[in-house]
Design a protein that fits this description.
6 helices, mainly alpha, two-stranded antiparallel sheet
């Protein structure tokens, strides 16, 4: 058995899993858990610390995913041309990846606005108080939505990846190649 795409697939899947799972966990737990403290100024510090610790891990996960994605694309370049449906699926994955990268990057920009003020009073990671500075409150309101956008988009990427795996089954490859050769079938 030849495992020529194994390293790329492993990087792709582990990186994507960490990107999805980490952002989902932070949205579900960290942002809300930080608000449990009795002091509003501590909630901001706790949230900022958590996200700042996650950022390099997330960057590594994204990097792993991208390296793996390039490797998988290269390893499957023949199927992109010969098997019907593979190019479309690959284009969809590329669009989702670009969207996830964009939302992740913008979230980080907003997160920096929040974390620049260490002891800012907040209700939780994405909930300002009445005394939260306006710029921080605005960033938090945007982050409240974006914290769910990243796991939603990366979750969609996982679903498309599962579909891509189904396209690699021998019967799917054969059917896709035959469809490409005979578009009327």
């Amino acid at each position: 058995m030849v495992l020529q795409n194994f390293p790329s697939r492993a990087l792709h899947d582990v990186g994507l899993s960490a990107w999805f799972g980490g952002t989902l966990a932070n949205a579900v737990s960290l942002n809300r858990a930080a608000g449990v403290t009795d002091r509003y100024s501590e909630a901001g510090r706790v949230t900022n610390t958590g996200w700042n610790l996650w950022t390099p891990v997330n960057a590594a996960a994204i990097g792993m995913h991208l390296v793996g994605a390039v490797g998988l694309t290269w390893g499957n370049k023949g199927r992109l041309v010969t098997q019907k449906g593979v190019a479309g699926m690959s284009a969809l994955k590329a669009v989702l990846t670009a969207a996830a990268l964009g939302v992740t990057a913008y979230s980080r920009v907003l997160g920096r606005k929040v974390s620049e003020q260490q002891d800012v009073p907040v209700e939780s990671g994405t909930e300002p108080t009445e005394t939260t500075p306006a710029e921080v409150a605005k960033a938090q309101q945007q982050l409240k939505l974006l914290q769910w956008a990243v796991p939603a988009i990366t979750g969609a990427m996982i679903v498309v990846t599962a579909y891509a795996g189904e396209q690699q089954r021998p019967t799917s490859v054969k059917a896709g190649v035959l469809q490409r050769l005979n578009p009327l079938s």
